């Protein structure tokens, strides 16, 4: 191409009989074009740097069904490798934990008011005075219910303001990538701009929540510890302690105006993420300072599992969460046993050819709940007939399910690989934090071996 035919040259070529005004306009257009060109070059360089940095970083994919404990494991990674960042976020978790507490109260009241429950009359006024055998007691529960109404109403308002949720479940649910933490006052490099008026409104409703919760803590504690309420839960075979975000045993502490969340509180807190969210961690410790890793947390809902596949070929390791809770059904499909669903999911992961060269590490999670279930006398064979008459003890039950997962791993993997498993209770921050450090070191060592560097 002739130089005179180059469109980039022609556009800024000095025309004949150019006026001064035209010259100034042409010069400005040329400067603007140069600025845009430099910006494009800088963006391309930044994109290349990010891609290079990502290639050097450890990439981990968290997999498992909904409520398997993925978020708790993620928080343990943050606590282990980025403790200062974890500390900065402490205050925002105060609101989340208080909302978790109120959500448990609402769940409890809904159970007591269920028309199918034998204790429905505990919250429903008798048709005639004194017609209920525990009329004075029922009046007490109805008074508590009425007294908690403003708190429940405020929970609705706060959920709508911060999270745009307020459905029947009242569960805190945030879309992936929504930067929901900034709405609760947390500032990072990507959320420096915030509407001051909205922030003031948020601060006001958070302050109201603290005051109202403190005023209601005696009623909440009385409701939760009441013997008849506990009997009602037992009749319906409901154990709220097994639910994510449970804090009813800590009402006195959490409902206090001076409450500050502990590390354990934050790990136990429940926020459901809808979609795929990637977390970028830069290690702060002296030994690993500057080391980066990307942890991808995907939605475990059955309807969202098709979205996992694009992340398979970009991961150094998969952490698969399999809660050993054999007597629970999926919330999204009450016909499906949770543990059987985990096994089906595990088989799909093990057999996927995209993951043939990927480390798969399985966490047999919620061991604390398994122990409590067995100690309460629940028999495994009633839910898993193939377990037969084996001992109804933690060690035996764990070995049985571990052997099943191990068998599928060996049988279905496209090529031989080690079966790596750990027994965990993700809300136990001391043991799990130590474990994630071990897992991290193992991933590093395996990658070096594959690169023939050791």
From TrEMBL:
Q: Which residues bind Mg(2+)?
A: 71, 273
Gene3D superfamilies in UniProt: GI Alpha 1, domain 2-like, P-loop containing nucleotide triphosphate hydrolases
Signal peptide per UniProt: none
Q: Do you know which PROSITE patterns this protein is assigned to?
A: G_ALPHA (PS51882)
**Pfam families found in the cross-reference section:** G-alpha
Q: Does the record's keyword annotation contain GTP-binding?
A: yes
UniProt KW keywords: GTP-binding, Magnesium, Metal-binding, Nucleotide-binding, Transducer
Specify which residues bind GTP according to the UniProt entry for this protein. 365-368, 426
GO CC terms of this entry: cytoplasm; heterotrimeric G-protein complex
**Which GO-annotated molecular functions does the record name?**
G protein-coupled receptor binding; G-protein beta/gamma-subunit complex binding; GTP binding; GTPase activity; metal ion binding
Q: Which domain of life is it from?
A: Eukaryota
Q: Which GO terms describe its biological process?
A: adenylate cyclase-modulating G protein-coupled receptor signaling pathway
Q: Known SMART domains for this protein?
A: G_alpha
Claim: Metal-binding is one of the keywords in the record: yes
What InterPro entries does UniProt report for this protein, alphabetically?
Answer: Gprotein_alpha_su (IPR001019), GproteinA_insert (IPR011025), P-loop_NTPase (IPR027417)
The protein's name in its UniProt record: G-protein alpha subunit
């Amino acid at each position: 191409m002739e130089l005179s035919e180059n469109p980039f040259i022609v556009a800024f070529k000095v025309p004949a009989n150019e006026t001064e005004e035209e010259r100034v306009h042409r010069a400005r257009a040329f400067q603007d074009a140069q600025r845009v060109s430099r910006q494009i070059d800088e963006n391309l360089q930044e994109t290349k740097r990010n891609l290079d940095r990502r290639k050097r970083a450890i990439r981990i994919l968290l997999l498992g069904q909904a409520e398997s404990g993925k978020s708790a494991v993620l928080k343990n990674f943050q606590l282990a490798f980025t403790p200062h960042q974890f500390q900065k976020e402490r205050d925002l978790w105060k609101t989340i934990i208080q909302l978790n507490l109120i959500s448990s109260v609402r769940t409890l009241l809904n159970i007591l008011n269920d028309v199918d429950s034998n204790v429905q009359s505990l919250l429903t006024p008798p048709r005639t005075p004194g017609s209920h055998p525990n009329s004075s007691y029922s009046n007490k529960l109805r008074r508590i219910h009425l007294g908690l109404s403003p708190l429940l109403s405020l929970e609705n308002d706060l959920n709508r303001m911060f999270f745009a949720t307020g459905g029947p479940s009242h569960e805190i649910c945030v879309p992936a990538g929504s930067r929901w933490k900034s709405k609760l006052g947390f500032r990072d490099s990507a959320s420096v701009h915030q509407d001051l008026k909205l922030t003031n409104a948020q601060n006001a409703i958070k302050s109201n929540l603290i005051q109202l919760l403190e005023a209601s803590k005696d009623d909440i504690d009385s409701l939760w510890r009441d013997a008849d309420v506990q009997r009602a839960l037992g009749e319906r075979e409901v154990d709220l302690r097994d639910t994510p975000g449970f804090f009813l045993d800590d009402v006195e502490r959490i409902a206090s105006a001076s409450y500050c969340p502990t590390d354990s509180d934050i790990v136990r807190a429940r926020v459901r993420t809808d979609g795929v969210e990637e977390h970028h961690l830069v290690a702060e410790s002296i030994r690993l300072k500057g080391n980066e890793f990307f942890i991808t947390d995907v939605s475990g809902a059955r309807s969202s599992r098709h979205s996992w596949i694009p992340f398979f070929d970009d991961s150094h390791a998969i952490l698969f969460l399999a809660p050993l809770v054999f007597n629970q059904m999926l919330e999204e499909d009450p016909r499906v046993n949770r543990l059987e669903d985990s096994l089906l999911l595990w088989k799909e992961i093990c057999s996927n050819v995209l993951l043939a060269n990927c480390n798969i590490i399985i966490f047999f999670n919620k061991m604390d709940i398994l122990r409590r279930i067995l100690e309460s006398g629940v028999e495994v064979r009633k839910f898993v007939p193939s377990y037969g008459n084996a001992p109804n003890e933690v060690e035996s039950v764990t070995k049985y399910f571990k052997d099943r997962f191990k068998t599928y791993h060996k049988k279905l993997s496209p090529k031989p690989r080690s079966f790596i498993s750990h027994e965990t209770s993700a809300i136990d921050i001391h043991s799990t934090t130590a474990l994630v450090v071990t897992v991290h070191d193992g991933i590093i060592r395996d990658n070096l071996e594959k690169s023939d560097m050791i």
